[in-house]
Amino acid sequence: MKVIVYSTRAYDRSHLDSVNSSGAHQFTWTAERLSLKTTALARGHEAVCSFVNDPLDAPILEALAAGGIRLITLRCAGYNHVDLSAAIALGLTVANVPAYSPHAVAEHAIALLLTLNRHTHLAYNRVRRGDFTLSGLQGIDLHGKTAGLVGTGRIGTITGRILQGFGCRVLAYDPFPTQEARDAGFELVALDEVLTRSDIISLHCPLLPATKHIINASSLARLKPSALLINTSRGGLIETNAVIAALENKQLRGLGIDVYEHEAALFFEDHSATGIPDPLFARLVANENVVATGHQAFLTDDALANIASTVISSLDAFAAGHAVPFALKPRA
Ligand code: NAD
Fold it and tell me: Does residue 115 share a domain with residue 69?
């Protein structure tokens, strides 16, 4: 199939090329993000391969369909950015990569937690400039503490098991808890119990109307002031203004994030020459008790290889007229 790959980075290209070594599919690579303007690049192709911040709203889907696109393969698991009903009404198939490496994301959540708790981001800079003082670097033992998960799917369950390995008691809230979460021995509780009892909270639910700003001024007021909050899921789960206020008012000890609610206009580009163009994000990361990464939790060799092989299997299935294994259906 002729496939246009939006938001291409070198690592996407090398992994997709290596799985497509037979040359069954012809790729056009573009670093451009998908937008109404860049849909013109898709003309003459049958499939689009896009990433997490490439919007797929109704006008963009209509332009793609009018240009001959029939299949959209996402290089990500989350699909809150896709108007699935519009896609289906237009006869477009949209497939995601549901589980390329839940370990990659869970391990990154733990990396953020350990950095934040032991201040290794500050220590690294101090040591490099010859400052070996320790003031302000104290953390807590994770052993014996209570960790709370919001969402016990693939990533949440692995994160909980890693935290159990540190000796944490794990509480979890999920309206549809998985068998794996029950088998892991997490204490399944209401959301408010996760908020009020946890020393560490890690968010692992999808972004849905019901979960948008699940962390807001009133939920932040329920947390222990000593709590650490981690979000590797979707930026829209946290109301940024409210979390800045909580950090500044010492209602929250620290925040570790890989995602940010307005990240689409910011992440995956180098703004270092001009400075961070988003004043809200700049204010957030000015806090030393905030550790932020730019949506890199997925970025392991293993995950990239799995993403590439799932994308190619979707293209293969569609080209052969078979059902696409991970074609998305609207949520019930
Ligand atoms: P999953 O579908 O396996 O699990 C999600 C869980 O959330 C499910 O058990 C579901 O019942 C639960 N849930 C639904 N509504 C909820 C609510 N209101 N409150 C609490 N829980 C709720 O998904 P996953 O593979 O574990 O991924 C979790 C999220 O991680 C994804 O939605 C995606 O947004 C994000 N993600 C981020 C990255 C990254 O690079 N930062 C990579 C992959 C996935």
Answer: no
